[in-house]
Design brief:
By secondary structure, the chain is an alpha/beta fold. It has two domains: 268 residues, 3-Layer(aba) Sandwich (Rossmann fold), CATH 3.40.50; 184 residues, Rossmann fold, CATH 3.40.50. The two termini are 12 Å apart.
């Protein structure tokens, strides 16, 4: 077996070009770590409106790939433009499928034709590799948006000499989003027969089909890989996942240590490392000023940076936030950054209106503010209902903010209770409140113990190099499966 692998890496999001969550971070970081290991990685994503505009105004340095890509779909051949660049800070090529009617839109997701948009992208990404005369050793596909590629490669693609015998790894970032469509989409993709014996969902489910057809499957944390095999965590696909359980693995996401490094982060008021925790006070003051909070020193400054939806535990957070503001009158401060569902935005705005001297809420997407929150807060809250991996707790620990998390998914795998943070088990407000009280008590009564937890979190290894080793092993297992 070859030491160096050719890896076709396809994703609907790739940071910094397009990102809604952890998927974008993985797709923007893992290929660089794999390249450093000696692999030939090519990344493909759609050319969204912000990318097209970035090229027009000179923000992005892209070149137009010569010729037009031919994509056969729905009984006709589409001619598609391809843009090419490099992942920032690397020599990893990234290609953008430029189909204006499908991708040149203000948002990445949320359109009625999303299944057809990403079916088109999936097929175009595969055809691009053939047009480049570059045959991958393995396809690495991410979440339901690339499920059509996995499905086609394992079925109709096996009759095409360009793709015959290529295995696939399918990474599940969030099982809750599955990509459903009508059966006509299989004809559009040219997949016949439909070949998912236990479909049973009344429609095409691209997450299910990718799980069924992928050579190997992984999730973005070991605990989540086990949780999705149960009815409570399987989002309706637990039976199918148990059927494939032998091939389901968990690899913990990494953190881009170049982007997230408190010792070099120019977005902070003061840089620092694990031996210079006193410098965090400068960031604390800057955060208090930015949030219009009193410049108090010896009170816990608590933070949340989150997407405001049901997954993130907002339904058990309202009572806890209100209790925190009332029970520690004048002795706790809270900063929240996030946007999402209207009911949670209203809830947070209302609570903040009662506690203007102690609480500040930014209901927006403000990536420039996030590093200061991580670097200036004492505690970081993640009371998730479920969490495939989680990025916030990794950044918080890296920046010396002690996480208080629910024991689920990747939060279990990254936060050691009493060592690098605090956990609570049951998904309810009382358990959350008790864990937060425990953290606040230690903050007040044992400064040395508190600093040990901060330093342990800052020194923990969540580098992409470690994660890339795990992915390399899965690639080799997938290749061995095909060879065997």
């Amino acid at each position: 077996m070859k030491e160096s692998l050719r890896i076709l890496f396809i994703s609907a999001e790739v940071a910094p070009f397009a990102k809604k969550g952890g998927l974008g971070d993985v797709a923007g970081s893992l290929p660089k770590a794999l390249k450093e290991m000696g692999h030939d990685v090519r990344v493909v994503m759609p050319a969204y409106q912000n990318i097209e505009e970035g090229i027009a105004n000179g923000r992005y340095d892209f070149k137009i790939h010569p010729g037009q890509l031919q994509v056969p779909l729905g009984g006709r051949t589409f001619l598609v433009g391809v843009l090419e660049s490099l992942l920032p800070g690397s020599e990893v090529p990234i290609y953008f499928i430029a189909e204006k009617n499908l991708f040149n839109r203000p948002e990445i997701y949320g359109y009625a034709d999303d299944p057809y948009r990403f079916a088109f992208f999936s097929r175009a990404a595969l055809d691009l590799s053939a047009a480049l005369a570059w045959r991958p050793d393995i396809l690495h596909a991410h979440d339901w948006h690339t499920g059509p590629a996995v499905n086609w490669l394992a079925t109709s693609g096996q009759t095409d000499p360009n793709f015959h015998g290529i295995p696939s790894l399918f990474t599940i970032h969030n099982l809750a989003h599955q990509g459903r469509s009508d059966w006509n989409i299989q004809n559009y993709l040219g997949i016949s027969p439909y070949s998912l014996d236990e479909e049973g969902y009344g429609e095409v489910n691209f997450m299910a089909r990718a799980i069924f057809h992928a050579t190997m499957i992984n999730t973005v944390s070991p605990t989540y890989s086990r949780e999705i095999l149960s009815p409570s965590g399987g989002a309706g696909l637990d039976g199918l996942l148990r059927h494939r359980s032998y091939d389901v693995h968990g690899i913990l996401n990494g953190l881009d240590y170049q982007e997230w490094n408190p010792a070099t982060d120019a977005r902070l008021a003061s840089t620092f490392d694990s031996e210079e925790l006193a410098k965090r006070q400068i960031n604390r003051r800057a955060l208090q000023e930015r949030a219009n909070l009193p410049l108090l020193d010896d009170v816990p400054l608590v933070a949340m940076i989150t997407r405001l939806d049901f997954q993130k535990g907002l339904d058990i957070s309202g009572h806890v936030i209100h209790s925190l503001m009332n029970a520690y009158a004048g002795e706790a401060q809270l900063v929240i950054l996030g946007s999402g569902e209207a009911e949670y935005e209203r809830m947070l705005a209302q609570i903040a209106s009662y506690h203007t001297e102690k609480m500040s809420v930014f209901l927006d997407y403000m990536p420039e503010l996030a590093p200061l929150i991580y670097g200036g807060s004492d505690m970081f809250l993640m009371p998730s209902r479920f969490e495939p991996c989680g990025l916030g707790q990794l950044i918080a620990m890296r920046y010396g903010s002690v996480p208080v998390v629910r024991a689920t998914g990747g939060l279990v795998d990254t936060v050691e209770d009493g060592i690098t943070g605090f956990q609570f088990q049951e998904y309810d407000a009382n358990a959350f409140w008790h864990a937060l009280q425990k953290a606040i008590n230690l903050f007040h009564t044992d400064k040395e113990g508190w600093q040990r937890i901060q330093q342990a979190g800052m020194k923990a290894d969540f580098s992409w190099q470690r994660s890339a080793n795990g992915y390399q092993q899965l690639y080799r297992w997938a290749l061995a499966r095909i060879a065997g």
